[in-house]
Amino acid sequence: MNHYPLNKDPFKETFGSLENLVDKISDVLQCPVTIEDANHRLLAYSSHEGQSDKARVDTIIARRVPEKVINSLWRAGIIPKLNQSNDPVRISEINDIGLGDRVATAIVSKNGILGYIWVLEIDKRLSEEQFSLLKQAAQTAKNQLLQVQVRKKKKQEGHQELFWQILTGHLKSHEEIKEKIEQFGLPPSLPASVIIFQFKDEITPKIESHISYMVTTTQQLRITFFVISRHELILLGSPLQGSEDKSATVNFIEDFISQMGKRFKVNNIQGACGSSYDTYEKVEKSYHEAITVLNIKNQFPQEVGDTYSYQQLGIYRYLEVLLKKKQEDGYENATLKKLGEYDGINKTQLLETLEIYLNNDSNVNDAAKELHIHTNTLIYRLKRIVEIADIDLKNPNQKMTLYLDIKLNKLI
Amino acid sequence: MNHYPLNKDPFKETFGSLENLVDKISDVLQCPVTIEDANHRLLAYSSHEGQSDKARVDTIIARRVPEKVINSLWRAGIIPKLNQSNDPVRISEINDIGLGDRVATAIVSKNGILGYIWVLEIDKRLSEEQFSLLKQAAQTAKNQLLQVQVRKKKKQEGHQELFWQILTGHLKSHEEIKEKIEQFGLPPSLPASVIIFQFKDEITPKIESHISYMVTTTQQLRITFFVISRHELILLGSPLQGSEDKSATVNFIEDFISQMGKRFKVNNIQGACGSSYDTYEKVEKSYHEAITVLNIKNQFPQEVGDTYSYQQLGIYRYLEVLLKKKQEDGYENATLKKLGEYDGINKTQLLETLEIYLNNDSNVNDAAKELHIHTNTLIYRLKRIVEIADIDLKNPNQKMTLYLDIKLNKLI
DNA sequence: AGTGCGTTTGTAGAATTACACAAACGCACT
DNA sequence: AGTGCGTTTGTGTAATTCTACAAACGCACT
User: Fold this and answer.
1) Where is the PucR C-terminal helix-turn-helix domain (chains A, B) (predicted)?
2) Which residues lie across from A233 on neighbouring strands?
3) Which of A22, A149, A405, B384 has its Cβ near the most Cβ atoms within 10 Å?
């Protein structure tokens, strides 16, 4: 086993590539070593002949750390610990994801995390000295990564401009867009849908880096593009071929929102997506659909708060059209008008009662609970409503009309 | 008591007016006498000082026979009997409408009924001779009425042309239309709505006379205009001030259809009406609404078969707009598609099951009955549907979306 | 304070609906 | 003919909803 003196830095020489560096580290520490970027994408791995654990193999195969592993590392508090610590951190094995004992360190520049170095402890634990060596290795890796960073940033700016052109319909034809995307060396990924996240507060550079992390680490969707404007994050995402589950996009949205909260304490994010289309020219449409979803979610937080996709909106997709038609017709629901008048005179809440009853799929128990009243009170009120408004609550057409008209009235 | 010899016709002289004639008849028969036209509108009544029954008084006050009385006479089979008989007919009292014993005869020309003469039998019954005299009186009345008929016909043709102009939007401004209507001496009657009846078979002159009868005898609505084209009868009707009930128009439609069937054996009539508006310029709109109702009723006979007004259409009013939006969006309900495919492969009827379940307001019993299956079968199918289509049948938004999309699919 | 009206809550039995399970059926496939 | 799958029907029980009725409350009006 080689021994390097502490006072001499074995990583002082220049390494042509990260591969050389990782081999050197592996050589010095006598362990399998992996370097990944800030988003857990594999940058280099040592060709050490010894054993590897499952997590490492999977990472190398996929050229990125599996999302399951990332999630697990977050849950165990390891990633935050790495990000905050200046020194290497020892991580005990996590069996269910095939992660053996290891030591890791973040590669940090003054602008934040650039990546991580992972060292597997197959047969023996690293010594204090070796911890120190690893820290020096991270210093050297930093310089290499900074160069990559700049190149990537420039590239991304080009992507963003292209994405805006697609979103705004500046580029119309599918062929044209496809060509441009290929020019950028981006993988073709269709069908695709546009996803928008709306942040309550302005997106700071810090949040931006969190977003970038989330977007690149997710493996639920392939994110071809993403751009950030003041309060919004807009993505173009495609479901992976593996998951034929159509709800991949919706799952991604839910996870993104929940993890931004849990991991980075960034809350109050609204998410929405348009439909999935198989040609690029329809991306613009998907974008507008996503905007519609956001608008409707803002207008009807209770009704469609847990809904993210344009498809899921159901009847709410039609509200705008219906409102327009209603105004053209000069239509007013006589029933609701009567109830409203009655409410005004008698200080009752028949309208609200009816709405919540309908919201709850005509279930008296659920509706009564939501209204905080006795079931019989609700039944009594419903009888009153039927009398006053002269309606039939067993007639689906009437019920739907009432439901829609109630919601439409809220729009004005 | 005067006695006129049988062989001498006391009505041979010329009478300047119907009033003179009616007084003469009353004088000859020594009874109160009333003459009305074919539509039971009062033409003349004797000023005989004696008693009268309630029906006669009401008729004179309203200048027409009350609808209740007409209905009662039809129910008792008296009107048809009068229309078919060449001789006067004796009618026994009908207490609940205040109709005392009387004798009546139709006034008939070769083109049909022109009117009726009613003779009250207050103290004594008419003799055979007097029957004969009454028959002669009817002959004389006929000539007078024929002249009136011609004048009325001409007037009506003028009305019809005006009505068409209003319906087709040829006359746009309210003021202009109002003026024209006043020129015709027609009563101003607003709010008004357009009513259309669609006849399965072509409207023959005979049916036309029945229509005319129905339209002029009804007292549920004031019918300002009516025109007849090949298969259609179009009316402009206003609710009477007395009945503030908004469903007067709908009631009229229902009664019209049922009575055309019962009284004249004219069946297969579809009826519909537009909304009520208070300016004449909106009559055109009401007309188009009525047409829409008819179209939708033809497309959804089951769903809105018992619905007549544009308002009652509820959600079906929106179908056209929704279809348009749907086509613009290129939207297809994935759920329904899946179910349809499943039905195709497994020869099941999940789609139909779902539709009828939703039609029946999610009531398993009613739906099972309509489907002629066991309740548990329905429950089983619903579970399948939920599985296959991945939907939540407790979510009103989803349910409404499914309902609407099912109906929309039927439109194509 | 009393009266009347509309409203709310409670109780209890009847009617419906939900759920689990077993049996049998039809049909395609071998 | 047997097997498996999806479907249909029947049974029994638990849960829920409907219904009617009684009691009490809040509030305006007198």
Assistant:
1) 350-407
2) A197, A228
3) A22
